[in-house]
Structures are given as C-alpha cells and as structure tokens.
Amino acid sequence: ANYGGFLQKPDYFIDYKHFNGNLTILRSFRFNAFRNLDYYWHSTTSNYLEVFAQHDFNKLLLTQITPLRIYGLKESVFANYLKVPNQQFNYVEVGYGLSGIGKLFGLEVVGNFVNGKYDATVLRIKFNR
C-alpha cells in the first residue's frame, strides 16, 4: 500500500504523482502496476492511496488437474485499488492470472470498476522473466 500527497502544489506536470497504468495488451512485470488504468488521466497534486494485493495458489482451478500442475502452470488472483480524493475517483481492478504457459508467458483476465460501477474486462499477456 502507498499513501502520499504534497506539502505544496507542484508547478509542473512532470512533478505530479503519476500512477503506473497500462492500456496495452502486454503487462508490466512490476507487482505495483495497474492492469487497465489510463496513463496520465488521474495524475494528481493531492493525496492518494494505492493498494496492491496478489495471492499465488498451488491448486486453484486448472492446477487441480495434476498434469497441468506438473507442467508448471501457476494460478493467482489479485486486486488493486486507487483512490484520488480531489478527483472523487475510486478505481478497483480484480483479476485471475495463469502463468507458465509454454514456460514463456502468462495470461490475465482483469475486470475494473470506477466509482463502484463496472467499467471493462480486459485480457493481458505477460512474459516470464
């Protein structure tokens, strides 16, 4: 979780707090990144709160099938939250991820909600390091 703000309003856009968003089908390797947030639309000069949570499972849905688990598939669920009070903006994304496909990449399905209302569902591809 990250909470922050400014003692004095920055003069230049480059000094605003920018959130790690993504609108491409490829996903960042970073844990603290939003999967479907506009890049600069919600940049702020006021207080903000970011929360990132993820849990990786040994057995969940597809990994209940022994050959898939032995093959190296891993499943995870995650939820991310962003609150920017001066914009009255609450953003939540929840998702399911499957990694270890072909030992090279993974897939994530992400649903996001803006101010409590469903916004979109997207598919993201991530490459293993």
Neighbour order of strands in the largest sheet: 1-2-3-4-5-6
Topology pattern, helix = H, strand = E = EEHEEEE
Q: Structural class, from helix and strand content?
A: mainly beta
Number of helices: 1
Total strand count, please? 6
For the CA atoms, what is the radius of gyration? 17 Å
Described by the principal axes of the CA atoms, the overall outline is elongated
Helix fraction bin: under 10%
User: Averaged pLDDT, please?
Assistant: 89
Uncertain runs are: none
Beta percentage is 35-45%
Sheet of most strands: 6 strands, antiparallel
| Spatial separation of the terminal alpha carbons | 24 Å
Give the structure's gist in a few sentences.
The chain is mainly beta and 129 residues long. It has one helix and six strands, in the order E-E-H-E-E-E-E. The longest helix has 6 residues, at 66-71.
